[in-house]
Each structure stands twice: as C-alpha cells, then as structure tokens.
Specification:
The protein is an alpha+beta fold. It has a single domain (about 1-85), classed as Dna Ligase, domain 1. About 25% of the residues lie in helices and about 35% in strands. It has two helices and seven strands, in the order βαββββαββ. It is globular, with a radius of gyration of 12 Å. The protein starts with a strand and ends with a strand.
C-alpha cells in the first residue's frame, strides 16, 4: 500500500477538509477510487465502526482497509485523520 503523509501547520484542518484533500490525491492516479476505511482521531470515530478489535497492534478499521484492496493510505497531521482508498 502506498502511504502519503500530509502535515499542515497554521490552519485548523477538520475532517471534511482532510477528506476532500485525500479524495483529490486518491483520484490523481485512479479516477475509480473508493474510500474503504477512515479514522477521525479528533472525534474518536472510524469506519467501519463495527470493528473494535486490533490485529497485531493495528486497529480494525486499518486492517479492514488493507484487506479490502486498499492501495493508498493518506494520513493528516500524524494520523489525526486517516483515509484508505482502493
């Protein structure tokens, strides 16, 4: 899986803005990309929400993303927001 890390300073990035930026990055190499899983550490929510387990130290939502054709992981500000796309 390719990993992109975005650090933004001097501007308060919220979930919606981070998601829009991640979508643009994901579509750059693949117009048919799909958001498979995500995490919002600020609000302590993630999707898929039903996954509460960890596997080898990785949260369930991240394992789900990897195992469902995740090809791109976009992280904002040290994993405050993370999006995994096909």
């Amino acid at each position: 899986m390719n990993k992109v890390t975005v650090q933004i300073q001097g501007y308060d990035v919220d979930f919606d803005l981070a998601k829009q930026m991640a979508q643009l990055l994901a579509e750059r190499d693949n117009e048919m990309t799909t958001l498979v899983s995500w995490n919002d550490a600020k609000r302590n929510i993630h999707s898929p929400q039903c996954l509460q387990c960890e596997i080898k130290g990785d949260p369930g939502w991240e394992v789900y993303g990897r195992n469902h054709e995740g090809r791109l992981r976009v992280s904002f500000n040290d994993d405050v927001f993370v999006f995994i796309y096909t």
